[in-house]
Specification:
The chain is an alpha+beta fold. It is built from 16 helices and 35 strands.
C-alpha cells in the first residue's frame, strides 16, 4: 500500500440505521478498487469488515472496522460503524477521528431513527455530513420522495451531487451534478453517456442550488456570485469544503451497493471533493499535561507528533491492537511515544494499516492518517500519544451510559478468574461496558447498552477466551425494618453437666425515625442486672444477626435496640450465652414488631419525542412508578419519574420498542420504600423457596 500525504487522505465514517447497507457499501468500494477478488455478502458472512465470529453469526456489524480504499491517487479511510443501538458505543471513537460522516440510508425505508441519531451525532461532533441513499435498485423506491423528505427535514443544505438514472429494477446509472455528466453501468463498466433529455432541467436546477450553496459558504465567493460572475470549479470546491464544515452543504449521492451502480462515481466524488484532514487549517484542541494550559495542533507533517487512540482490539492470539488517528506530525518506528494520560513512554511492536482483520505493515504514516499499533502496554481507548518534548493531551471519549445490568456467574466452578479476566479484556475493546461488584448482594454486575450487547459479550467470552459465563437478572438489595415498638425477653439456658450456659436479656426494639442510622444500640441497664462485661456481647450478637431479617433474610435497617434488664448466673453466664440470648430476643422481637420489606426506588429520567409521552407515562404507571415532572429538552421531552428497581430490569429493551429506538433514559438511586403487601408476599415466598433448595 502506498504512502499518502495529508492532502490525499479522506477519513469517512459510514453511519446510519442497522441493515441499510453500510457494510455492503464498504465491500462494494473495496471490490471496485480491486482490493478484494469478489464482493462479499453480509448474508454469507464473508465481508471484509464483518469478520468477528459474532458478526458472521448474526449477519450484522457489532464493532467498528476500518477499510482503507485506494482510489484516484487518494486513500479513502472508511470506518464501517454498527447501526444497531446496542452497539452505539462503537460510534464514539470513529466520529471523533473523521472529517466526514457519511450517513447511509435506504431508498426503501427513507428517514429512520438510525439516520436521526447519526445526523445528531455528526452535528454534535461538528464533522461534515454526506448522505448516501443506498438500495436504489429495490422495488417501489422513489428518489424524488426521499429527496423531498430530506429537504423538508433539513432545508436547503440538502444538495444532490449524484442522482440516479432510473430507479428500482430500471436503475442504469447516475448523474454527477457537479460536473454535469451522466454515466451508465456498474463498477469498471461505468461509462460516460449523453445527458438524458428528461433529466437535463433537473440537473441544471440542482447545479444552481449547489453553486449558490457553495457561494454562501464564503464571503468572497458570495460577492462574486451576486455580481453575476460564474464560479470556477476550484471555487465551488472551496465553498463546498467550507459548506460541509459549517453544515450549510450536505451532499446527497444515490447508489446501489449490491449492483455496483454509482459506486465508482461516488468514490470519485469522495476523492475529489470531500475534505482532507488538513483542510482549511483545522486546529485540534487539547491541554498541555504539564501546565494545564490549552494548546492546539494543526494536521501537518511539520507539527510535533500527536495521535489519538479511538479503538482497541483485544485478541488472545494476535494480542492488543490500538487503532489511532494521527492529529499532527508523522509516525515511524523511531518515533518516541509518550502517553500523557498514563505518564508513560510506550514502545510499539509494529505499525499497521488495518483493512478489516488484515494487517498491512507500514514504515511511516503521515498527519491525518489512520493506523494501528500492536501490543502497547499502558495505552487504552481514549488516550493520547505524543512527542514527550511537546506534550498534548486530547479530551477523552464520552461513551453512552449503560442502561441494563446482568449478574455474571461462571458456568463451571473454579473458572471465575478466567471469566473476569476475559471480561476485563473485552472492556478494553468496548469501554461502553461496565463491570462492578455490588457490595450488598456480593454479585458482580456487567452493564451495557442492551440485551443483545450483553449477549454478544457472553458469546465473545466463550469464543475468544474459552470462558463460559451465565448472565442472570441481578439480585435486588431489599431490606427489612419494623413499624412498631416491642419489648421482649431473650433467655438462653442450657445445662449439660459441668458448666452450663445462661444468658437473659430484656430488649426493647423500635424503629429509628429521627435519623438515617441503620442500627443503634442503647445500654439502659441499671443495677447490674446484666454485668458490664457481657453488654458488648449483647450488642455484638445483635449486629451479627441483623444482617438477616426475619421476613426473607434481607438486612434489617433503621432498628434501635435498648437493653434495659436481664439476669445472669455467676458460673454459667458467658459472652457466648449472652450473644445467643440477644439472637433469641432479636428473632422474637422483630417478628412481633410488624416487620416490612423495603425496596430500592430509582429516579428515572426518560428523554423521548413528544408523540411518545402518553405511552411512556402509561408504561411507568404499570411499573408501579410515579411521574414527578416533565421538562423540555431541545426537541424532546424529559419525563422524570420514580419507580422500583425491580420493575426496571427490562426497561432498556421495552423503551426502545415503545419509541422505535428514539427514547433514552438514565437511573440513579433515590431511597428505600415499603414494598406493597401483595408484592412482598411473592418476594418472601421466593426467598423461602431458595432457602429450602439450598438446604
Amino acid at each position: 500500500m502506498a504512502d499518502y500525504q495529508t492532502k490525499d487522505i479522506r477519513n469517512i465514517a459510514f453511519m446510519g440505521h442497522g441493515g441499510e447497507g453500510k457494510t455492503t457499501l464498504t465491500e462494494a468500494m473495496l471490490y471496485a478498487a480491486h482490493l478484494v477478488d469478489r464482493q462479499g455478502r453480509v448474508e454469507d458472512g464473508n465481508t471484509t469488515t464483518d469478520f468477528d465470529p459474532e458478526e458472521v453469526r448474526r449477519h450484522c456489524s457489532i464493532s467498528a472496522a476500518t477499510a482503507p480504499v485506494e482510489w484516484a491517487g487518494k486513500t479513502l479511510n472508511i470506518i464501517d460503524v454498527p447501526g444497531y443501538f446496542d452497539f452505539a458505543g462503537e460510534v464514539t471513537g470513529p466520529i471523533r477521528v473523521v472529517e466526514t460522516t457519511a450517513i447511509v440510508m435506504s431508498a426503501v425505508t427513507g428517514l429512520s431513527v438510525g439516520f436521526e441519531k447519526a445526523f445528531d451525532a455528526a452535528e454534535k461532533q461538528g464533522t461534515g455530513k454526506m448522505i448516501i441513499i443506498n438500495q436504489m435498485d429495490r422495488e417501489h423506491v422513489s428518489y424524488d420522495k426521499v429527496l423531498a423528505d430530506l429537504k423538508a427535514e433539513h432545508g436547503s443544505s440538502i444538495v444532490p451531487v449524484l442522482a440516479p438514472l432510473g430507479e428500482g429494477p430500471s436503475l442504469r446509472g447516475v448523474v454527477n451534478v457537479l460536473e454535469k455528466k451522466a454515466f451508465e453501468g456498474a463498477y469498471d463498466k461505468s461509462k460516460a453517456v449523453d445527458m438524458p433529455a428528461d433529466i437535463k432541467d433537473k440537473v441544471e436546477e440542482w447545479y444552481a442550488e449547489l453553486t449558490e450553496a457553495a457561494a454562501a459558504a464564503d464571503d468572497d465567493l458570495m460577492m462574486k456570485y451576486l455580481e453575476g460572475e460564474e464560479l470556477t470549479a476550484e471555487e465551488i470546491t472551496l465553498g463546498f469544503h467550507k459548506g460541509m464544515k459549517d453544515g450549510s452543504i450536505i451532499p446527497v449521492v444515490a447508489v446501489s451497493a449490491t449492483t455496483g451502480i454509482g459506486i465508482t462515481r461516488m468514490m470519485d466524488l469522495m476523492a475529489n471533493y470531500l475534505p482532507s484532514p488538513g483542510h482549511l487549517g483545522l486546529e485540534h484542541k487539547g491541554v498541555n499535561p504539564k501546565t494545564g494550559e490549552e494548546t492546539t495542533r494543526t494536521t501537518a507533517d511539520d507539527q510535533p507528533f500527536s495521535a489519538f487512540i479511538f479503538k482497541t482490539i483485544a485478541d488472545p492470539y494476535v494480542g492488543k491492537l490500538s487503532l489511532f488517528r494521527i492529529f499532527s506530525g508523522t509516525l515511524n518506528a523511531s518515533t518516541v511515544l509518550y502517553n500523557p494520560n498514563k505518564d508513560k513512554t510506550e514502545k510499539s511492536s509494529g505499525l499497521y494499516v488495518l483493512r478489516g482483520k488484515k494487517q498491512i505493515a507500514k514504515q511511516v504514516l503521515h498527519a491525518g492518517d489512520i493506523g494501528a499499533m500492536a501490543k502497547l502496554q499502558f495505552t487504552s481507548t481514549g488516550d493520547t500519544l505524543c512527542d514527550p518534548n511537546k506534550p498534548i493531551q486530547y479530551p477523552a471519549l464520552e461513551y453512552p451510559l449503560a442502561c441494563i445490568s446482568k449478574a455474571v456467574y461462571a458456568v463451571k466452578q473454579g473458572e471465575e478468574d478466567k471469566v473476569f479476566s476475559g471480561l476485563n479484556r473485552l472492556i478494553e475493546e468496548d469501554p461502553s461496558l461496565k463491570i462492578e461488584k455490588n457490595v450488598e448482594t456480593t454479585e458482580t454486575l456487567l452493564s451495557g447498552l442492551g440485551e443483545m450487547h450483553l449477549d454478544v459479550v457472553r458469546n465473545k467470552l466463550e469464543s475468544k477466551f474459552g470462558a463460559k459465563a451465565d448472565l442472570r437478572d441481578p439480585k435486588i438489595p431489599y431490606r427489612e425494618t419494623i413499624r412498631k415498638t416491642v419489648r421482649v425477653q431473650g433467655r438462653h439456658k442450657k445445662q449439660s453437666g459441668g458448666h452450663g450456659q445462661f444468658g437473659d436479656v430484656w430488649i426493647e426494639f423500635s424503629p429509628i425515625t429521627d435519623s438515617d442510622a441503620d442500627f443503634e444500640f442503647v445500654d439502659a441497664v441499671v443495677g447490674g442486672a446484666v454485668p458490664r462485661n457481657f453488654i458488648p456481647s449483647v450488642e455484638k450478637g445483635l449486629r451479627e444477626n441483623i444482617v438477616h431479617g426475619v421476613l426473607a433474610g434481607y438486612p434489617m435497617v433503621h432498628l434501635r435496640a435498648k437493653l434495659d434488664d436481664g439476669s445472669y448466673h455467676p458460673v454459667d453466664s458467658s459472652e457466648m450465652a449472652f450473644k445467643t440470648a440477644a439472637r433469641i430476643a432479636y428473632k422474637k422481637g422483630c417478628t412481633d414488631a410488624s416487620p416490612v420489606l423495603l425496596e430500592p426506588i430509582m429516579h428515572v429520567a426518560v428523554v423521548v419525542p413528544d408523540e411518545y409521552m402518553g405511552d411512556i407515562m402509561g408504561d411507568m404507571n404499570k411499573r408501579r412508578g410515579r411521574i414527578i415532572g416533565m421538562t423540555q429538552v431541545g426537541k424532546n421531552q424529559q419525563v422524570d419519574a420514580e419507580a422500583p428497581m425491580a420493575e426496571l430490569f427490562k426497561y432498556a429493551t421495552d423503551l426502545r420498542s415503545m419509541t422505535q429506538g428514539r427514547g433514552s433514559f438514565t437511573t440513579s438511586f433515590e431511597r428505600y420504600e415499603e414494598v406493597p403487601q401483595n408484592v412482598a408476599e411473592k418476594i418472601i415466598a421466593n426467598a423461602e423457596k431458595i432457602e429450602d433448595e439450598e438446604d
